[in-house]
Amino acid sequence: MNRADPVYMDYAATTPVDERVVAAMLPYFSQDFGNPSSIHRLGQRAEAAVENAREQAAAVLNCRPDEVIFTSCGSESDNLALRGAAFAARQQRGARHLLVSPVEHHAVSHTALQLQQLHGFELEWLPVDEHGRVDPGEVARRLRPDTALVSVIYANNEIGTLNPLAEIGALCRQAGVPLHSDAVQAAAYLPLDVQALQVDLLALGAHKFYGPKGVGALYVRKGTPLLPAQTGGGQEFGLRAGTSNVPYIVGLAEALRIAAQERPARTAHVQPLRDRLVGGLLEAIPEARLTGHPVQRLPNHASFVFRGVDGNALLTMLDAAGFAVSSGSACKTGSPEPSEVLLALGLPKEWALGSLRVTLGASNTPAQIEALLDALPQLVQQARQLAAR
Ligand SMILES: Cc1ncc(COP(=O)(O)O)c(C=O)c1O
After folding, report:
1. 75 C-alpha vs ligand 1 centroid, how far in Å?
2. 2 belongs to a structural domain
3. In sequence order, which residues have a C-beta less than 8 Å from that of residue 223 and are 6 or more positions away?
4. Is 312 close to ligand 1, i.e. is its CB under 6 Å away?
5. Which domain holds residue 345?
6. For the chain, what is the mean pLDDT?
7. What confidence score (pLDDT) does residue 1 get?
8. Which of ligand 1's atoms lies nearest the C-alpha of 206?
9. Which atom of ligand 1 is found nearest the CA of 77?
10. Which of 12, 107, 159, 309 could link 292 by a cystine bridge, Cβ 3.0 to 4.6 Å?
11. Residue 30 predicted with pLDDT over 80
12. Do 254 and 271 share a domain, yes or no?
């Protein structure tokens, strides 16, 4: 990073690519550049790299290699899971009911809405508690014989809350309904054993765990009915057409391998920093709240709301003060809208508009946390004065 760059505390948005991952990818750009579908030796070498990556990913997921589908990003994995499972369930058993949590990333929620609006599916949102957690009992109450798919995020991107996937998975299995989970944020810190999690579909995106942008994966349990979202060649077992992005697939697998291996050390680095930040901030700033679950949350994730603050104005001030952080609200043509996830927690608009997300990673230090804690109270006060004008 450049010396003039702000302190990076936005690891949920994206992460830098690990140097070991870059090194693993490099040979596949211009040396072993073959098309894995080609018969000749160069093609075979590329194919071996992709299949090796598939095995590596399968080892982390505790699944068979042919249950791993490489895609172009986490969003594509979510799209393939939702569209593919919904259309297959309708085709095979006339199922039209979708059960989706209201704290999903737009890659899931907007896909579900499109399935409702354009394709005639009945979309039912699951309730969540004040921490954004899905109660398995609520899933049990809503599962129906014609439920095509249940989708519940593993770890939320805005508020860091973790969901009890294994319990929800067991209920879905009993009912014969596939469970999809978006594990895009979870992958950097949480176990991804799909047998223990009892999921049928699981989406990953490499750039959230020190891999490259533009590559993802979808776990598809054998026997889960799924139609391809992208048709064409027979790559990825006919589920995702398109010439394989060999270097990026190699990069995803290497980043995933390292993430699984270094998970305890990474957690031990970020969690105390995060805890100091949460404790220090709530003590120093009046009318501030932690959003998401206090304990059942990603270890690097701190998210807050401040009453009477425009979150985007606060982000701009923080950027000027040298901190790259994020918020939950998307500013639409000058009129900020609170995030759907924060509203789903039951937060009033004057709180939900003032959101701040700080997500830590490899480069962060205790001194950086203290610097942020020193800067924030005054900036929040200024942002409040600005919003009150
Ligand atoms: C929970 C979650 N799902 C999906 C995505 C989309 O992933 P990608 O950027 O790889 O498309 C993101 C990215 O922010 C995310 O946080």
Report:
1. 6
2. no
3. none
4. no
5. 7-14+263-388
6. 96
7. 64
8. 10
9. 11
10. 159
11. yes
12. no
